[in-house]
Design brief:
Layout lengths: L10 H20 L6 E4 L5 E5 L12 E6 L3 E8 L2 E7 L8 H12 L19 H8 L2
Helix pairs in contact: 1-2, 1-3
Length: about 140
């Protein structure tokens, strides 16, 4: 006779690991390494990917991708006060890396339809179990 004891999983640990893998995949897709990324798996969860590009309309500012669990991905420029979002991808909070690549290419090309200026409300922060299920797909 065997007994299976389910101790469950540590949701926050699994969520942080899954989010790290997801952000690493997006970073690879846009051509940078994990060393260009920061991650905060708290509430609200957030990520930052520094890019090696500048936009012609903002030549003194570095370009970055920023993500949070309520609004999803945004392209942002950096200055001394932090990152300022220029365009929000919208749609899904955790889109496929190729969707982020297309979004970033449109932003870099100056496409006025690259994204929304206003941050979309995609979900309420928290409930990392729900995000973990999305990351696990």
């Amino acid at each position: 006779m065997s007994i299976l004891i389910d101790f469950g999983r540590d949701t926050e640990f699994s969520f942080e690991r899954g989010l790290r893998e997801y952000v690493a995949g997006v970073a690879r897709a846009v051509g940078v390494g994990l060393e260009s990324c920061t991650l905060d798996a708290g509430t609200p969860a957030a990520a930052y990917i520094a890019l090696d590009w500048r936009l012609t309309r903002f030549p003194e500012h570095d370009l970055a991708l920023v993500w949070d669990e309520a609004h999803g991905w945004a392209a942002a420029i950096e200055d001394v006060s932090g990152a300022t979002a220029l365009a929000h991808l919208g749609g899904e909070v955790l889109p496929a890396p190729r969707a982020v690549v297309r979004f970033l290419a449109a932003v870099r090309a100056g496409d006025p339809d690259a994204g929304a200026l206003e941050a979309p409300a995609l979900r309420e922060p928290g409930d990392h179990e729900e995000l973990l299920a999305t990351l696990s797909r």
